[in-house]
Write a structure and sequence with these properties.
Elements (H helix, E strand, L loop, with lengths): L2 H12 L9 E2 L9 H9 L18 H15 L9 E4 L2 H12 L5 E6 L4 H7 L5 E6 L10 H9 L5 E7 L11 H13 L3 E5 L26 E6 H4 L8 E5 L2 H9 L8 H12 L1 H28 L12 E5 L9 H15 L1 E2 L1 E2 L10 E5 L5 H16 L4
Parallel strand pairs: 1-10, 3-4, 3-5, 5-6, 6-7
Antiparallel strand pairs: 2-8, 7-8, 9-12, 11-12
The chain binds pyridoxal-5'-phosphate.
């Protein structure tokens, strides 16, 4: 487990909510700004029926997968999918692990543009015995996806590459890829005969003027080589329910995932609850509008506070975090100096950030700040505390 993750769990548990200097965790990517919108649904009687607490299709009940098709068409841009192209498993992590297992072989690689979600390494390398091959995007383009960098990483990879894994909206920069960037990346991967995993887990957490368009709506009809991942974890703030979705038009891939779905299946009660929720499109549409407004405000206030603290941020319009450039505060440009700064902020400001090393950046000095795990006022207060630590650094 990454150090920042362990510190968060430990300090969160020990912190006194009434202490003004209490621990503030801005490291874990969760949306806790929406509970009041969801709470009435969670605490209302569920009208549960007996069939939903028994054995069912381990890849997701027919009712839930049918509801997902309508929801995905209306909100994710997955047009013309059908319930048989959907599998439901315990979170996006389980989907990615299972997909890699099914498509790859031990010893093969999955190409991942960085900076990136740290969990891919655990998802792909632990049980699947595959290797994540990073393609480090460049800071002078704000790490935008570049097929030349993909090509260079592909060509110099020590292992044969099986798939390209793209996260859009991008983790942890919060950018939305343009259609052209997505097209280029898919075209490049196809020219190399790779499968493409499109992780769109932040698809609905958008708050700027750039609309998010799923790569599925850019494809000319069903594709055998592009597989889509989404989950309730981020856009619905339900990371603990463990519900991830795979959409693929490749029948062999779906059949193989189904064979092992039993080991990662989702509770029938949860499927019943979520099916009822997403079948209610009036609720979903209103929820999404409010959720986005809250993200927009928190994002804006966080970015302003960071800039005032002298920390440049990468412009973003999606996700739950901003990537700050702390390079100017490092005593030297090294991973050890980044770790030392992260540790000082944790110990002196009592604020936990995600160090860039955990996002597998190509260079030290960046840290990610989640703006949706605490109310904006708390985030602003935490950034003020960080500013005091930064001011005391001799440079
Ligand atoms: C980009 C990305 N993919 C996958 C996951 C894992 O999602 P889940 O909790 O649904 O397994 C996360 C969680 O932080 C993420 O940020």
């Amino acid at each position: 487990m990454d150090e920042y993750f362990a510190e968060d769990a430990q300090r969160q548990g020990a912190s006194d909510p009434n202490d003004p200097e209490r621990f503030v965790g801005l490291a874990i990517a969760e949306n806790k700004l929406v509970w009041d919108l969801l709470e009435p649904r969670f605490n209302a009687p569920r009208g549960i029926e007996q069939w939903s607490i028994g054995y069912d299709d381990f890849a997701g009940s027919q009712r839930f997968r049918t509801a997902i098709v309508s929801f995905a068409a209306a909100h994710l841009g997955y047009h013309d999918s059908d319930p048989d192209s959907i599998v439901v498993l315990a979170g996006a992590g389980t989907i990615l692990e299972t997909l890699s297992y099914v498509i790859g072989d031990p010893g093969e690689g999955i190409l991942v543009p960085t900076p990136s979600y740290a969990g891919y390494w655990a998802d792909i390398e632990t049980r699947d015995a595959m290797t994540v091959v990073p393609a480090h995007m460049e800071p002078d383009t704000d790490f935008r996806l570049d097929t030349d960098v993909l090509e260079a990483a592909y060509t110099s990879s020590p292992v044969p590459i099986r798939a390209l894994l793209i996260t859009n909206p991008v983790y942890p920069t919060g950018q939305i890829l343009t259609n052209k960037e997505v097209d280029h990346a898919i075209g490049w991967a196809r020219s190399r005969g790779l499968h493409i995993f499109m992780n769109e887990i932040y698809a609905l957490s958008t708050f700027g003027n750039t609309p998010f368009i799923s790569a599925r709506s850019l494809l000319d009809g069903p594709a055998q080589d592009v597989h889509f991942v989404w989950a309730f974890s981020k856009d619905f703030g339900m990371s603990g329910l463990r519900v991830g979705i795979l959409q693929s038009d490749n029948e062999s891939v779906i059949a193989a995932v189904r064979e092992i779905a039993y080991w990662g299946s989702v509770s029938g009660d949860t499927q019943h609850f979520l099916a009822s929720l997403i079948e209610d499109d009036v609720f979903v549409t209103a929820y999404l509008a409010k959720m986005r407004l809250r993200l927009k405000e928190s994002h804006q206030r966080t970015s302003v506070a960071m800039k005032q603290a002298g920390i440049p941020v990468i412009d973003s319009n999606a996700g739950l975090f901003v990537l700050g450039d702390f390079r100017g505060f490092l005593t030297e440009q090294s991973w050890q100096a980044e770790h030392n700064l992260w540790r000082r902020i944790l110990d002196e400001a009592n604020v936990n950030l995600t160090p860039g090393a955990s996002c597998h950046l190509g260079m030290p000095g960046y840290m990610r700040v989640c703006f949706a795990r605490e109310p904006a006022t708390t985030v602003e207060g935490a950034i003020e505390r960080i500013a005091q630590v930064l001011d005391s650094i001799e440079r």
